[in-house]
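Sample pair:
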Amino acid sequence: MDETSSQVVLQITIDCADPERLVAFWTEALDYVPEPPPGGHSTWREYWKDGGLPDDELPEGAGETPESIVSPTGVGPRVWFQQVPESKVVKNRVHLDLKVGGGREVPLAVRKERITAKADRLTAAGATVSRVMNEPGMGYFAIVLQDPEGNEFCVG
């Protein structure tokens, strides 16, 4: 990279009605942690206000609890749950794949066990199963779920 280039940093933004609920769910799903406010601030709202963001641009309750999650090891993108007034209407055009099976070099029975265990933990945390992808002879197994607000994702 030359000095005029900059590194692209990926953030995943998920529109939602209840950021607090999805922060709790996706920290479990991704083994992430809620992102703490920077600079010793007690809340993100306090941080934003200290940075000059006017009160009229902050919806009620915004930033009082974490609205983003990060990898505790610093690997992986930040995920921000952006509160929006409209609800989800159609199928996602982009979805997350949680790769927990270990890949095709792992025996299918072991992959199924790992995938099912993760899906079971996520349904206990509020996800719902949409379908199981288990075509005979394909050597492939995955479970399609929806998070508590209906956003589709796969565990495979």
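The chain has a mean pLDDT of 90.
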